[in-house]
Amino acid sequence: MILFEPPMGFLAIATYVTMIAVAISILVAALRVFIGPSLPDRVVALDLVGLLAVSVISVVAIASQQPVLLDAAIALALIAFLSTMAFARFIEWQGGRDE
Amino acid sequence: MNATELIAGILLLAGAAFVLVSAIGVIRFPDVYMRMHAATKAGTLGAGLVLGAAAIVFGDLGITVRSFVVFLFLLLTAPVAAHVLGRAAYYDGVPRWERTRLDELDGRYPVPGERGAPKAVPPGD
After folding, report:
1. Are the beta carbons of B118 and B109 closer than 8 angstroms?
2. Which of A24, A31, A35, A58 to mutate to test the interface with B (most CBs of B within 10 A)?
3. Three-state SS for B84?
4. Which residues lie below 8 Å from residue B123, measured CB to CB, with a gap of 6+?
5. HSE, side-chain direction, 13 A CA sphere, residue B45
6. Under a CB-based contact definition with an 8 Å cutoff, are residues B39 and A44 in contact?
7. ipTM
8. In the predicted model, what is the mean pLDDT of chain A?
9. Residue A77, in any domain of the structure
10. Is A3 a domain residue?
11. By residue range, what is the domain housing residue A51?
12. Looking at the 3D structure of chain A, how many domains does it have?
């Protein structure tokens, strides 16, 4: 899938660094999803995970030279927004504190 | 190394930095409202920079328009989602940081922690 050959240029190195940074960010945001004291904390972290997934898709599109993947980014951004809105309405109706 | 590659790489690294900052903010800030601040602004900017890098790398009109549309969509929806979520958290009585000094909504919304349908705020005051 990854098409950068071993004598890597600046773009290849930047792509790999970005992949590592986004992976660390997703792990950190997932940690907030797990510990996160209230339900809105978890939903905020999940929203960030959706945003980071869009970033992952763009970086993989660059690395694998497959611009078709950006269509998946469009769909994923839409799904993340809708799920955040649904969670927010759910919290307003039901109350979300789990202490 | 040509100029396109250089610009795209710089955009990628900047996006990686902003994404990392937003994740650190989400894990380190003491309050759900501050975490929302980190996740929404820095996260949107980081994803937008990475999308811009993709647009520059491919250099095709369709790809550029597509990544610009994704960025525009994120730019439009992230504040809306954060606003609705912040309002829900406030209704639900999620505690603020104990050193927050100003809460201009104090007394205008239903008592924090009280569940049920929120009442409308009377206009004009």
Report:
1. yes
2. A58
3. helix
4. none
5. 13
6. yes
7. 0.88
8. 88
9. yes
10. no
11. 38-92
12. 1
Distance in angstroms (rounded) separating the CA atoms of residues A10 and B78:
32
Contact B48, A49 (CB under 8 A): no
Is A59's CB within 8 Å of B50's CB? yes
d(CA B44, CA A51): 7
Q: What is the pLDDT of residue B123?
A: 55
Q: How many CB atoms lie within 10 A of CB A17?
A: 16
Query: Does B23 contact A48 at a Cβ distance shorter than 8 Å?
Result: yes
Query: Tell me, what DSSP letter sits at residue B120?
Result: P
pLDDT band at B10 (very low <50, low <70, confident <90, very high): very high
pLDDT of residue B102: 83
DSSP state of B38: I
Backbone angles phi, psi at B124, to 5 degrees: 95, -5
Q: Would you state the structure tokens that stand for residue B68, as one six-digit string? A: 């610009």
